[in-house]
Amino acid sequence: MNLKKTLAFLAVATASVSLAACGSSDNGGSSDGIVLANGAEPQNPLIPANTNENGGGRLTKLIYAGLVYYDNAGKTHMDVAESIEPNKDNTVFTVKLKDTKFSDGSPVTSKDFVDTWNYAVEKNFNNAYFFEMIKGYKEGAKSMEGLKVIDDSTFTIELAAPDADFVSRLGYDAYFPMHESAFADIDGYGENPIGNGPYMLDSWNHNVDATVVKNPEYTGERTAQNEGVKFTFYAQGDAAYADLLSGNLDVLDAIPDSAFSTYEQELAGRSTSDASARQVALTLNENLDHFSGEEGKLRRQAISHAINRDEITEVIYKGTATAAKDFTSPAIPNYNDSIKGSDVLNYDPAKAKELWDKADKISKFEGTLPISYNADGNNKAWVDAVANSIKNALGIESVGNPYPDFKSFRDEVKNRTAKGATRSSWSADYPATSAFIGPLYGTGAGNNDADYSNPELDSLIDKAASSSPEEAVKVNEQIQQILFEDLPAVPLWYPNTTIGWSESVNNVAVSWNGTIPFWEISKA
User: Fold this and answer.
1) Which GO terms describe its cellular component (predicted)?
2) Domain ranges of the chain
């Protein structure tokens, strides 16, 4: 069966799943001002600097507030900060805070920010990497000499080297402040955090749902236009879509692929599909058998050439995704779709087989190449299509390996026990090229699932950070040339954020990075 026919079969088979058979929740529409949305069980307790996945990020972005925030277009605005003033060479930043409070009424102070950031580094949290530009950063260090409290509303940040992007980074979760009570019982705090954002956690029923309610102490620009949001953790996207159609869900942040052909008609003006700063890729860890050294490089290049991205995005995604041309996203400033080396992303089955056979001369590959993914995330159709594309081009067995939910999948990836290639999806943490590079491919970075390490690339990451904006563009393209050669991950496509909503809500939108600004939503 050729690829086109196979993809069509997969799309029809997926679409034929009966929505009615999926079942739906019995909670009905909310009449108390609470917006009903889909979600996923967080991988970890709700500690901002330890949260680097979508399940937890949905909640931390609502419960906490940082020095700055991003509007829907990706522009940076002051949030908790009154001002952030750099010195002439962008190495020292003086932060002055507004008069704001945590949800328990206690003030947010300079010490809260400094203590939180130092604690994240001391405990080597997942996002500790985001502090490495601060002077005195060292893994496990109890304090960084670059952080100094001046008074309750003023502190300074000294960097080890100039960084023109630094202020734009500060809206990411890693930099959110924690209440002083966190440090006495971090695990307990993560289950019931005291935040400073537009919402506060009301309940968290693990593996079932979580509800946030409006924080009366919040006085920032992201004031909630509803009374709260209840996130239900669905095992399957089809079940969530069925609830949306029946009025038992207000907002769905990912239309399932089974509905790509029908959702616009079924939702009748209550949907949108917008480009955002996201990318989907396949990651092949350097320590997998046959995927290290020169052999591994050849095999990753072969797999990349084996995948027909254009046909998969056309048939499976119905135009709601675009074949990848780089390691970032068209939604990021200075995107370039023709960087030297990007032809490794072109579909070329003959070249793929040639490279695979060359790798086999180093060490013969035998067995099956699984592709691991979370079954609750609308991934099955495209994983099956990619596996079939690899099978046809390379003459090997390749199959999907589903995990029941996002948390169990990410736990296996984190523990390096996931089998074969793994599905990777990344949304930029701040609107810059560096948001796609350092966190994923820098040596030791918390989201470097490939365990990739290249000293030349690390050096260029540092150089880009300390360069002028114009020079940084050139350096970032050098970085991508290295990535195209090494392929620590195989970029697949840029998915649109395709969402739908019920007749019970208004003002639903998609932001620059594919997230929904829930605070803007009002009940009809």
Assistant:
1) periplasmic space
2) 22-41+206-275+497-523, 64-190, 277-495
Instruction: Report the candidate in 508, 435, 169, 480 with the shortest Cα–Cα distance to residue 278.
Output: 435
Q: What is the distance between the alpha carbons of residues 325 and 332, in angstroms, rounded to a whole number?
A: 13
Fold of 64-190: Dipeptide-binding Protein; domain 1 (3.90.76)
Identify the sign of the CA torsion 149, 154, 157, 158.
Answer: negative
Render pLDDT for 413-451 as a digit per residue (tens, 0 to 9). Answer: 999 999 999 999 999 988 899 999 999 999 988 899 999
Q: Is the dihedral of CA 305, 360, 385, 491 positive or negative?
A: negative
Are 124 and 140 in contact by the 8 Å Cβ rule? The answer is yes
Residue 429, class by beta-carbon neighbours within 10 Å (0-12 exposed, 13-18 middle, 19+ buried)? buried
- In this predicted model, what pLDDT tens digit does every residue of 163-214 receive, in sequence order? 878 999 999 999 999 999 999 999 999 999 999 999 999 999 999 999 999 9
Which CATH fold would you assign to the domain 277-495? Dipeptide-binding Protein; domain 3 (3.10.105)
